[in-house]
Design brief:
- The protein is of the alpha+beta class.
- It contains 20 helices and 10 strands.
- Strands 1, 2, 3, 4, 5, 6, 7 and 8 form an 8-stranded mixed sheet that branches. Strands 9-10 form a two-stranded parallel ribbon.
- Helix 1 (3-10) packs parallel to helix 6 (66-72) and helix 19 (411-432) crosses helix 20.
- The chain is globular, with a radius of gyration of 26 Å.
- The chain starts with a helix and ends with a helix.
Amino acid sequence: MNLFAQWLAQIGLESYAAVFSENNIDFDVIRSLNEADLRELGVAIGDRKRLLQAVASLDEQGVAEAGSRALSIGMPAPSARADAGERRQLTVMFCDLVGSTALSEKLDPEELRAVLHNYRTVCGEVIALYEGFVARYVGDGILTYFGWPTAHEDDAERSIRTALEIVPAIKRIVGNETLSVRIGIATGAVVVGEQTGVGDQSKLAIGSTPNLAARLQGVAAADEIVIAPSTRRLIGGGYELSDLGDLILKGILDPVRAFKVLGPRRVEGRFEASHARQLTPLIGRDSEIALLLDRWERAKADEGQAVMLSAEAGIGKSRITRALRERIGADPHIALYHQCSPFHRNSAFYPIIDQFERAAEFQSGDSADQKIAKMEALLGKAQSNIEEVAPLFAAMLSLPIEKYPDLRLLPQQQKERTIAAQVAQVMELANQRPVLMIVEDVHWADPSTLETFAALLERIDS
């Protein structure tokens, strides 16, 4: 272990040693990192504070001697901490294959092995997408952590998204068997990272949370996701849930009120999902609100405006935009709300598609023809040349385009035409009424969305 890794271990942050090593971070640059840099590296907010405090205590001369100096003030040596766990809030997901006993009797051992391998591979790919950690395979069950070794502010939501994607993903496994799973999810304090054997798979979370997740999995039916109240509190109003009431679970003293996840709820953005209940009054943001209201008045007077709100996470940017919308609610206007997502940074036009589908009132049970009819109706409110733009929007929305003339465009040409059509749509709406467009978390926007917003800004500036 090098000196920098030893120092991280001495301040209790050894789990980030690999991340810093991969990004070539050592004592020579650690002093120049700020909170934004650490957040981008995936360092949890509490650990960011601990790290910055430790960095502040390093003097210019003592950087190279950080390991020995830390020991001299009473910090434990790396060897003393190598097997020690750390206390974390963890979201634990237990996923179990349904009917595995019947499969074992029905299939040849080699066929069964192939099925289990494909099942684990598919689940592992989805888990990795949301940065979960597979802690252990328990027969045909998969124990997964969200929040360790890397913590995120939305680990509970990541677990729900993972579960919702695993259920249909295993249906697509090639073979003669249709697979189903049961999933239980719980959140709580654990001690994790204690080495109890050989390899990462033996680093287990100690506490009641893994047992609760396993018990909830046991009461779920095939292809159901059951979550604990601790997880339910963290995911806000972003999902449709069914209250299962108080359940008596084996090995758990008190009844547990459990919830079944039905699916995502269509909401405008993260703020609305996280603050489904009534908000407290906004205090101390009068100057920011006044500035935004001034810009809104200018926009109403045909002077296009663009304002960027930039600050640390949690400072209240979304709350300010919410207050703006409340203040101008009586003004005739059109509101367009775009929510960028860390899970869709590689999905072209994702925030724009999401906004369009909400505006067109797409429903999960709609047929392709119904969605096309709703799309054309929405386009008709702002476009006179629907025949030209409809195939572009249909392709963007992954709807059938057979009813439209062949575009005969190269991919780059189609993207440019799609962006131009989107800009024209917004500008035509602005000719009808003032438009308030809000883009949340633009740092997560995909490249195609960024190009679209850049093209809009050029039109505003012209």
